[in-house]
Design a protein that fits this description.
Number of strands: 59
CATH superfamily of the largest domain: Galactose-binding domain-like
Helix content: under 10%
CATH architecture of the largest domain: Sandwich
Strand content: over 45%
Number of helices: 2
CATH topology of the largest domain: Jelly Rolls
């Protein structure tokens, strides 16, 4: 009976409608690859950007894509799937654009296209349709012009997908379960350029249409109200049962609490059980009709209810003038900050030299924020559609902005809405209400991963405690960039949480490198007379709860000193402190540090070989700046294709133009090195895909874990050993492993363990050997370090008919205890698996009368 119903419904002709969700990318803020694109799928390795600027075909957003520059044919794609039955019919197109200053490389081998494919349940292509190829060498297309690209070419569904005809109607063949709309950018080898893509259309003209979701609230919104609502539409009038409507909020299915009105083809749904002042909500809607077609949507929002908000671009003007409740406008109007002029040195201090869209007479950089929506802007856009949410960007170190406002009396926490792509960032918040007096209030500290990835950042003290401020009346607050880099969208006040414990004296501090000793410690201070029990103090190291090993003392009723004395050397740690007082108010802090030894052997990436395989035989590469200029004996320079390889780009302040490109590093210096522009510490930048350097050293004999110290974005830098052809341009390599990571910033320096097949690899070295570091792009490389690989000390004792096995563990690790009756057989059986806690673990195994051999391995 169900099959008959489906057939009858299928016979109905649907009114042409675009079934794509987010076809113009307007649901996204500007961000780079790695961040999700609403309703679209993509390969996380693909290089792309969701841009928010005036180049968009319509709206504010578009998708920009370019090649992977890996020396091999590569495809970068973004696609969207929808349910489909055989016989359904479609028409499809989209818009593409080439920017004249970044045109697709004119070699005829780099181009982009649109396609629609019909696929079966196993994702096999059953039918394929494509648009024309879009590229600079195609005479039909010129730069700086948007072109509509209809999908009309019929293609063979099998490689190499030749065009075999044309049509204006795309028909789903037998076996179809889904239709895919896709944009693809193809790069043969190294060709440059990029393509912009916007306003995709997949109009269904015949056959049952999947349900659609509209009027979704709040979507990806900031400061949302405490409800979720949406409308379900069925263009084919296919019944949608109530049981087919699902809502999941923060991982919990709340479908039973939905209020549903209406029936197919239009159903309205509302959920009213959200809480106010929740900082992060996720929600997913899934709707399934009686045919089995689905529609879905995901949301990320909050229900924060601020007391007072001011925009970052609304800094003072005309020597301290201000508006308390400014209008949001797209033109110069009274009571609007649009177009007003600030006085440099009085209202703001900026070294930016342009990009001042919002206040064009100022030097401050302003542009579309690309952040999630806020209702105040949606309301303003009803009367003035050109209103835009702006951000302050292009901010240099020590740039500052004054914000004068009349603040309602209250006790507040202060937050900024900030983004950044320069790693660790600190913004100072100061009270400059009294002329000539600067009173520091605290700091906005965050680690930026993307210039469009905005975060809520609270004002904190030097220990990371969220600060409370008693504010009232006219105040002038100043935001100053101290380090890193940021885009500033807005600032706001929320009522301060009462009686929250504070943390201080944290050691090692966040970001500490080469921490010595075996102790992590901190102080907990009660607030508002609310006590803290020892059971409310927790420490997690690398995910493991080590609270049972804490030493806690109370020098007075208010404070508790806490220490953990089981840190291991040469270890990367993430510590999470979590404290809750007797009333349930809590505070947490995440601290990242390492206990790497300064005595470990290291190799600076800028200190590659010279003279066709020569190296620093005096200092073995461990003396700062030994390879700089011509300081090495008989140094006539590094030889291309023998000592190093570099394609192009960058600067050469360290070893001259015949070298890898280098820059003064912003990483924490190694012992003996001096950082900063007057220092001797450099890293390799503009380390393009395929670039490499050889590193001959007298390596200390041993087995090592190899950690790379690197920054950048999605990368896969390789370490190899040169095993033949030394001193020639035909060298034979043995791959030792790769450093895969996405540090999330060109100056966001991280430790990366060398891996092979997804697991850390141990490398055996000793004597004079040559290693090679090869870039796979998107990396700044400082050095690699050899960390001795140590075994696990296993102790065995007899206790009451049991073998007691004791061994030290590392917090966050996992250990397998194995046994065998014959080690020569190579057959080991797992006795048990033990989580690492940072303390000695004990495993008991009953004696069986047969001798057993034991070993412990770390997983």
């Amino acid at each position: 009976m169900g099959l008959i119903a489906a057939t009858l419904l299928f016979g109905m002709s649907a009114q042409a409608a675009n079934i794509l969700v987010n076809p113009g990318f307007e649901a996204d803020g500007n961000h780079g690859n790695g961040a999700p694109i609403t309703a679209w799928s993509f390969s996380t390795a693909d290089p792309y950007w969701i841009n928010v600027d005036s180049y968009a075909h319509s709206g504010a957003n578009y998708y920009k894509v370019w090649g992977a520059f890996n020396g091999n044919p590569n495809w970068s794609a973004v696609w969207q799937d929808n349910s489909c039955l055989p016989g359904a019919k479609y028409q499809a197109d989209g818009w593409m654009f080439n920017l004249g200053t970044d045109s697709i490389f004119q070699d005829g081998n780099d181009f982009a296209w649109l396609e629609v494919s019909f696929r079966d349940a196993s994702d096999n292509i059953l039918a394929l349709y494509k648009s024309d190829n879009f590229c600079a060498t195609n005479s039909n297309y010129t730069d700086n012009t948007w072109y509509d690209m209809p999908i009309t070419n019929i293609c063979n569904p099998n490689p190499p997908y030749q065009v075999i005809g044309t049509t204006n109607e795309l028909v789903a063949p037998p076996g179809t379960v889904k239709v895919r709309f896709q944009h693809t950018y193809y790069q043969l080898l190294w060709g440059g350029g990029s393509t912009y893509f916007d306003d995709a259309t997949l109009n269904q003209t015949f056959g049952p249409v999947p349900p659609t979701l509209s009027n979704i609230y709040p979507g990806n919104m900031l400061f949302a109200s405490n409800h979720i609502s949406f409308t379900i539409n069925s263009a084919s009038s296919t019944p949608i049962p109530t049981s087919g409507i699902h809502l999941v909020v923060n991982g919990t299915d709340v479908s039973a609490d939905l209020k549903i009105t209406g029936s197919s083809p239009t159903i309205n749904v509302i959920y009213t059980n959200l809480l106010t002042n929740v900082w992060a909500y996720t929600a997913s809607i899934t709707v399934t009709d009686s045919i089995g077609f689905t529609a879905s949507a995901n949301m990320n929002f909050d229900t924060v209810n601020p007391t007072f908000v001011w925009e970052a671009e609304d800094y003072d003007f005309t020597n301290g003038l201000y508006y308390d409740n400014p209008l949001l406008t797209s033109t110069v109007q009274l009571n609007s900050y649009f177009g007003v002029t600030g006085v440099v040195g009085t209202d703001y201090g900026s070294s930016s030299t342009g990009h001042a869209i919002f206040r064009p007479d100022d030097t401050t950089g302003t542009g579309p924020a690309g952040d999630s929506a806020r209702q105040v802007y949606l309301n303003a856009q009803v009367g003035d559609p050109a209103v835009i949410d702006y951000t302050v960007g292009y901010i240099a170190q020590y740039d500052w902005f004054n914000y004068t406002r009349d603040i309602p009396a209250g006790n507040y926490n202060i937050y900024g809405r900030l983004a950044g792509g320069a790693g660790a960032t600190v913004v100072s918040l100061d009270d400059v209400t009294t002329p000539g007096v600067t009173n520091n209030l605290g700091y906005l500290k965050f680690t930026g991963s993307d210039w469009g990835a905005y975060q809520y950042v609270p004002a904190v003290d030097n220990n990371g405690n969220v600060l409370q401020f008693a504010l009232s009346g006219k105040k002038t607050l100043r935001a100053t960039l101290l380090s890193g880099g940021d885009n500033m969208n807005f600032f706001f006040l929320v009522p301060a949480a009462p009686a929250v414990p504070t943390l201080s004296n944290i050691a090692p501090t966040n970001g500490t490198m080469f921490a010595s000793g075996n102790t992590f410690s901190f102080t907990v201070t009660a607030a508002g007379g609310v006590g803290i029990n020892n059971s409310g103090i927790h420490l997690y190291l690398n995910g493991a709860d080590v609270s049972a090993n804490l030493n806690i003392t109370s020098p007075d009723p208010t404070n508790k000193n806490v220490s953990y004395t089981l840190l291991l050397p040469n270890t990367l740690y993430t510590a999470v402190i979590a404290v809750t007082n007797v009333n349930g108010a809590g505070v947490s802090r995440t601290i990242s540090f390492d206990t790497m030894s300064t005595g470990n052997f290291y190799v600076k990436i800028n200190d590659f070989d010279y003279n066709g395989g020569a190296y620093d035989t005096n200092g073995n590469g461990l003396i700062p700046a030994a390879y700089q200029g011509d300081q090495l004996p008989n140094d006539t320079g590094a030889i291309l294709n023998i000592d190093y390889y570099h394609t192009s780009g960058g600067n050469y302040p360290y070893r001259g133009p015949n070298a890898l490109a280098t820059e003064v590093t912003q990483d924490v210096p190694l012992p003996g090195f001096t950082s900063g522009n007057s220092g001797d510490d450099y890293d390799v930048g503009n380390f393009n895909n395929g670039d490499w350097g050889n590193y001959t050293r007298d390596y200390p004999a041993g087995k090592y874990l190899v950690y790379g110290r690197m920054a950048g974005y999605s990368q896969n830098t390789a370490l190899s050993q040169v095993v033949g052809g030394w001193g020639t341009s035909s060298q034979t390599l043995k791959l030792l492993g790769t450093w895969p990571a996405n540090p999330g910033g060109w100056q966001n320096w991280v430790w990366i363990p060398l891996q092979l097949n997804g697991a850390p690899v141990i490398v055996s070295l000793g004597g004079v050997q040559t290693l090679r570091v090869t870039s796979a792009n998107n990396v700044n490389a400082n050095y690699f370090m050899l960390v001795p690989a140590t075994g696990i000390k296993l102790s065995i004792a007899l206790s009451g008919g049991n073998a007691q096995l004791s061994f030290p563990t590392q917090a966050g690790g996992t250990y397998e205890v194995l046994y065998t009756t014959n080690p020569a057989s190579g057959n080991w059986t797992v006795l048990t698996t033990v989580p690492g806690t940072g303390a000695v673990q004990v495993v008991s195994d009953p004696l069986t009368g047969t001798g057993r051999f034991y070993k412990v391995v770390s997983k």
